[in-house]
From TrEMBL, chain A:
Putative zinc-finger domain: residues covered: 6-29
Superkingdom: Bacteria
Protein name: Putative zinc-finger domain-containing protein
Pfam families noted in UniProt: zf-HC2 (PF13490)
InterPro entries attached to this UniProt entry: Anti_sigma_zinc_sf (IPR041916), Znf_put (IPR027383)
Automatic annotation (TrEMBL), chain B:
Name of the protein: RNA polymerase sigma-70 factor (ECF subfamily)
PANTHER family registered for this protein in UniProt: RNA POLYMERASE ECF-TYPE SIGMA FACTO, RNA POLYMERASE SIGMA FACTOR RFAY-RELATED
Stretches assigned to the RNA polymerase sigma-70 region domain: 10-74
Record keywords, A-Z: Sigma factor, Transcription, Transcription regulation
One GO term of the biological process aspect: DNA-templated transcription initiation
InterPro entries: RNA_pol_sigma-70-like, RNA_pol_sigma-70_dom, RNA_pol_sigma70_r2, RNA_pol_sigma70_r4_t2, RNA_pol_sigma_r2, RNA_pol_sigma_r3/r4-like, WH-like_DNA-bd_sf
Superkingdom in the source lineage: Bacteria
GO molecular function per UniProt: DNA binding; sigma factor activity
Family label: Belongs to the sigma-70 factor family. ECF subfamily.
Amino acid sequence: MSIDPEMLMAYADGELSPLEARRVERAIAADPALGEEVARHRALRARLSGHFAPVAEEPVPDRLAALLRSNSNVVALPVRKPARRIPGWTRWGGAIAASLVLGLFIGQGLQDPGVVRTHGGQLYAAGTLAGALDQQLASNAGAVQVPISFRDARGSYCRVFTSATADGIACRDSQGWALRQTRAGSSAAKTDYAQAGSTDPALMAAAQEMMAGDPLDAGAEAKAKASGWK
Amino acid sequence: MAAFEDDLLALLPRLRRFARALARNAADADDLCQVALEKALVGRASWQPGTRMDSWMYRIMRNSWIDTTRSRARAAQTFVDPDAGLGIGADGGAEARVALGEIDAALHTLPDEQREAVALVLIEGLAYKEAAEILDIPMGTLTSRLVRGRQALMAQLGEAA
């Protein structure tokens, strides 16, 4: 069965139904070149969204904001500040982050709170999350998806993950998968008929910043997995 | 009621990012934002509360951009040979092109119809269905433009393993 380029791209973007996705996965299993193409699609998305993400973080020019303020018929009502696109989680200190992240995992009704643990004040992935980070390749579908893997400046392997409960970036150290970035899950709102959608551009931008070199392609990812991400 | 303006203001960072992917440089992108915002304020009656304002604004911006490029192309044709090259006639075009990074330069080699598809899906993170609705094209047309645009970018940016 042949997989056309559009279908492979739609698979990389999480746009296929589970049935179609399984077809593509079977084809990938038979032809590793297809898996590499999927990784290339995802790497391109990460690169583009990372490149443009800073534009949305720039302060809005006064002339544009003034256009909206002056048009208001209500005089002297202060305009509410625009909601920040990226919440302050990127800058939270450890303790606050820890409590918020735990709240995020537990507060969203996850039955199994054992997907995070702490070690020496650092949050680590545990349970199913740690399992997915250890085992899952970018081309695999599942409750947790791991679309991008890369090495950070210190040479550690890091992986971007998305799930219904939380999205984030985890980096491998001697104690396990240290959680570097976490935020509310992006795939929670998706229907049963759609796979997890595109990864949050802000998360991709954060990954881009941490990345030394390019994201791992399918071959390098498989090799890293085989060596236990060390 | 300032809620409409507030919502637009909250969207503005994303609109600026979309404009940056469409236009050739930051100054043109903010001009495009201004035109689109003015149109949105004038046309606010066509906004249906409860529907997605981001899709509505992306559509206004994209249509404004088409209008701008068409009128600019007409103006350019009266003065220069169309084969003389893209970018001629735009103020500071040469400097802007020098300042363009590798990714911007690659994006601008794409035909407009591919670039707008790439911008909505890969940069703005919209689902295919949402992007197709904004561009007012069938899903099949969107995916074929998207796949061609991406393959061209991968070839240029050396994304090949």
